[in-house]
Design brief:
This protein is of the alpha+beta class and 345 residues long. The protein has one domain: 4-Layer Sandwich (Glutamine Phosphoribosylpyrophosphate, subunit 1, domain 1). Helix content is 39%, strand content 21%. The strands form two sheets. It has an eight-stranded mixed beta sheet with strand order 4-3-2-6-5-1-11-12. Strands 7-8-9-10 form a four-stranded antiparallel beta sheet. Strand 2 and strand 3 form a beta hairpin. Helix 3 packs antiparallel against helix 4 and helix 8 crosses helix 9. The termini are far apart. About 2% of the residues have low confidence. Bound molecules: aspartic acid. The site of aspartic acid has 15 residues, from strand 8.
Length: 345
């Protein structure tokens, strides 16, 4: 068959125009998706946090602590430090603050002890480390990082995790270090309530107001993502219960190709729905943005099954999401040109 030169010319011109348009589109996309030099997001727990229940002084204390945590993270990232170092050190600060349910300030177990859980993940290598049920480790997030970097394992628990921390030369404290009057009182209130009711069973649903985990996700100058989470768990937890926070893929996840995530809320639901990994999977397989994935998981999927809580997430460009389905979530973020902290909806 003979094709006329005129038709060939038309076809050639059309394909040229098409490629030019496609190129322009791609360039536009990459311009829109410019990666920020750094970005960092924190949370200090989600739950029944309402303006009418918080006096101005308490609110100011939380805002100050959130800002100080952001200062620490920004100090590291703006000087070219790694996302992992930023996440670890921000969480150490939040663990040392009695305001949050992690480290000093952790809630009490049914028997009146403090059992702490934490995890950290490196988005570049997919390496991760976690501890569950530690009782004498001052900063569980440091123990989680030691598990990641100095052991062949991902998750160590209870007595073994305590021993590992001692062997690693991490700071240890007597269990009484974690005592705070506020958390002790909430345990007493909880036990009082229980006395009046049937004895609690394994399936009892904890009240939303007991949440208060801390978490941090960060993007560094090298384009690496990291995520970490630390918690005292739920007030009056029993039987060495461990929540989502030290479970990689449930409470914490990081992948340079998608996002870094840290969750807070009713851990059992976050474990069942593999929330942190689901964030990454939705972005990878469905092409959702970090905000779309977060919104769907927290305000549709979890809400539909009664799972209270929220998450913080950051993508490879420094785009941020902080969805929650409770009345409040302590939260904040910082980038080279923006900073914000918030508590209520
Ligand atoms: N997710 C934590 C847990 O279930 C609690 C929290 O976020 O406050 O252990």
């Amino acid at each position: 068959m003979k094709v006329s030169p005129f038709l060939l010319f038309i076809a050639f011109s059309a394909s040229l125009v098409f490629s030019l348009v496609a190129c322009a589109g791609k360039e536009q996309q990459s311009m829109e998706k410019k990666r920020l030099q750094y970005a960092l997001v924190i949370h200090g727990g989600a739950g029944t946090i309402k303006p009418e229940n918080m006096d101005a002084e308490t609110k100011a204390q939380y805002e100050k602590a959130l800002n100080e945590a952001l200062d620490i993270g920004e100090g590291i990232l703006s000087k070219g430090g790694t996302a992992l170092d930023a996440v670890e050190n921000v969480i150490v600060y939040l663990e040392n603050s009695p305001l949050f349910n992690a480290g000093k300030g952790a809630v009490f177990t049914y028997e009146g002890h403090n059992e702490l859980d934490a995890s950290i993940m490196d988005g570049k290598t997919h390496k991760a480390g976690a501890v569950g049920g530690v009782t004498i480790v001052k900063n569980p997030i440091r123990a989680a990082r030691a598990v990641m970097e100095k052991s062949p394992h991902v998750l160590l628990t209870c007595a073994g995790a305590n021993r590992f921390a001692i062997e690693q030369g991490l700071d240890t404290v007597p269990p009484e270090y974690f005592y705070t009057q506020r958390r002790w009182k909430s345990l007493q209130r909880r036990l009082e309530k229980e006395k009046k009711k049937e004895p609690i069973g394994a399936r009892e649903e904890p009240d939303a107001h007991k949440f208060g985990t801390v978490g941090c996700v960060a993007l560094d100058e090298q384009g690496n993502l990291a995520a970490g989470t630390s918690t005292g768990g739920l007030t009056a937890k029993r039987w060495n219960r461990i929540g989502d926070s030290p479970i990689i893929g449930a409470g914490t996840y990081a992948d340079n190709a998608t996002c870094a995530v840290s969750c807070t809320g009713h851990g059992e639901y976050f474990i069942r729905e593999a929330v942190a990994h689901d964030m990454s999977a939705r972005m990878a397989y469905l092409g959702e943005s970090v905000q779309e994935a977060g919104e769907h998981i927290i305000n549709e999927k979890l809400k539909a099954i009664g799972g209270a809580g929220g998450l913080i997430a950051i993508d490879q460009y420094g785009q941020i999401a902080m969805p929650f389905n409770t009345s409040g979530m302590y939260r904040g973020y910082v980038t080279p040109d923006e900073r914000k902290v918030g508590i209520f909806k």
